[in-house]
Amino acid sequence: MNRDVLMILANEVKPFLELSRGPHRDDVFSVEKQLAMTLYYLRDQGSILMTANAFGVALCTVSVVVRIVCYVLTNKCELNVLKLPTTEQEMMELVSKMENKFCFLLAFGCVDGTQIPILSPRENPYDYLSYKMEHTLNIQTVCNYKGTFLHVDVRWP
């Protein structure tokens, strides 16, 4: 993601992530840094340690920031960046392109998911336990024929 796209996304989430700075709140991260930390964390395998080291913050800070930003992106913002096809024409166009490129019949996209490790949440920690007995957050995505995300869901333990 280039800087221009990051700034556009930051402007979209700013009303939900910007905290007021008071006399005792000089340590609050900018919206851009919160968003950058989250995107860095989600980019691959979601390593809290790698993200904390890259941004020079504590592990618990990364966990809190990622959780808040993901919540804002999935529940608070009306982003027009990701969208599934809404008309039959859009759907047929995606189906045709998927068939031409990969020979997948009657498919407009591919679904995949992953589990991102998180620190144990305070509320309902047992809901977030994976089959490996680790606390994780489930992520499901849908991509089109170009590998572009059409939909991302990060709401469920």
From TrEMBL:
One Pfam family cited in the UniProt record for this chain: DDE_Tnp_4
Domain DDE Tnp4 stretches: 111-157
Key words, A-Z: Membrane, Metal-binding, Transmembrane, Transmembrane helix
TM region positions: 48-73
Cofactor: a divalent metal cation
Keyword match Transmembrane: yes
Molecular function terms from GO: metal ion binding
Name of the protein: DDE Tnp4 domain-containing protein
Record organism: Pocillopora damicornis
